[in-house]
Write a structure and sequence with these properties.
By secondary structure, this protein is an alpha+beta fold. Helix content is 23%, strand content 20%. The protein is built from three helices and four strands, in the order ββααββα. Strand 3 and strand 4 (72-74) form a beta hairpin.
Length: 92
């Protein structure tokens, strides 16, 4: 996870997650590879993508992954852990 500042004042969240960092939504079956960023379904702040996936039906969630800078791909279990974090911006 990123440990970059998560707010305009420079403090990080209790989990160290930068909810505002730009992430990419990918189809899980996409597999990555050369020019992977051009195959992203959507780019948005991490919190928005986590919220999007969490609100899908459990079956549909399996279709997606979130990629963070540095080629870290999060699968459903990790995404749902983020959604359950105490500092997740649910109202955002």
């Amino acid at each position: 996870m990123s440990h970059n500042p998560g707010t305009t004042h420079g403090e990080t969240s209790p989990t160290g997650t930068d909810w505002a960092q730009t992430a990419a939504l990918h189809l899980a079956k996409d597999g990555g590879g050369l020019l992977d960023d051009f195959k992203a379904v959507r780019h948005a702040p991490l919190a928005d993508l986590v919220r999007y996936i969490a609100l899908l039906s459990p079956e549909k969630r399996e279709d997606y992954e979130i990629e963070l800078v540095g080629n870290h791909r999060m699968k459903v279990a990790e995404i749902m852990d983020l959604y359950a974090a105490k500092d997740f911006p649910h109202a955002g």
